[in-house]
Design brief:
Elements (H helix, E strand, L loop, with lengths): L1 H20 L5 H37 L1
Length: 64
Amino acid sequence: MADGVKGIGKFFRDVVQEMKRVSWPTRKELTRYTLVVLGTVLFITVFFAIVDFGISTLVRELLG
């Protein structure tokens, strides 16, 4: 059991060490990335809404 506890401790020390190596984005970069993601989600939402509307209209016309 002591080996398991030591293993967990080593794991968390390694996590802290790796987090220090991470290259974190600046506030400006983070804002830009967030806007890109939101813009992409908005574009895809509108695209699929239009496609859905078109397909539902086509099916409605075919079924009469």
